[in-house]
Design goal:
The complex is a heterodimer of chains A (114) and B (157). Chain A is an alpha+beta fold and 114 residues long. Chain A contains four helices and four strands. In chain A, β2 and β3 form a beta hairpin. Classes of the chains: A alpha+beta (114), B alpha/beta (157).
Amino acid sequence: MPVTLKRRYKRRYILVLCRSSSEELLSITRDKAVNMFGYVLTQKAYLRLIDKIGPDLHVIRCRSQFLGEVLCALALIGTEHSAVVLDVSGTLRSLKARAAIKKTVIETLLGTSS
Amino acid sequence: MGVNVIRLLKNKPLASTTFPYLVASGDYHDLASKDMDLVDITDIDQQFYEILNHAHPKRLGLEIAISKLRATDDQKLARNVSLIKSIHSFTEKHGNQLVLTSGASSVFEMVSGRCFDALLNLCDIKPETYWISLNKWLEYKISMRCYASDTKEKIQT
């Protein structure tokens, strides 16, 4: 019988552009996911707040298996807290590297600088 | 002007244009109109299906904006998701096209490609087939028209 390592669940890091605070964004996303898919799935999705890059860029982590559901919840958040998914990555390092490029583009687009 | 920009006009221009365009309407009673390319659907009721059945529009785009889905409550959102599914099967049957748009009026309302794919999967629509059919529909609509050249040709005498 082949020996296999005990594998940890796969994660996805999501870069989100949102004007609300990180805590607010996470709670709104959770609420939306609960309303759309239920408490069990939202719990399994394992949504976590990881980092904040600049004033409007947030990094959220979820289980790879439930990425579709999390993206749906983020896309359908109410108009007052609307969030834009900019990037999805399997590692935080690559996401941060790409976020650095995106940050400058967004700052010029929005006319803000940190 | 960017090549990939397609303008949405309310009325069909009388003369040929230099830019690609689609004639769009916000009223689904315009489904029967031959000049119409795209109809924005806000409220779907039995009358909508009756008009679609009677009008038999060919290659018409039925637009659903995500910004309008965002504004609805969760119960209505679930109903709208099932309606998108039924509209998609209806459009496939009658040779029309479902057009899912962000309906964004600012940067913060935009929807990324990954989210579009996730929403399409939620509505039981295969993203690959949707994007291919949308591309074909757009190519058909744009290629159907005559465009005026924007470069002034020198007349040789």
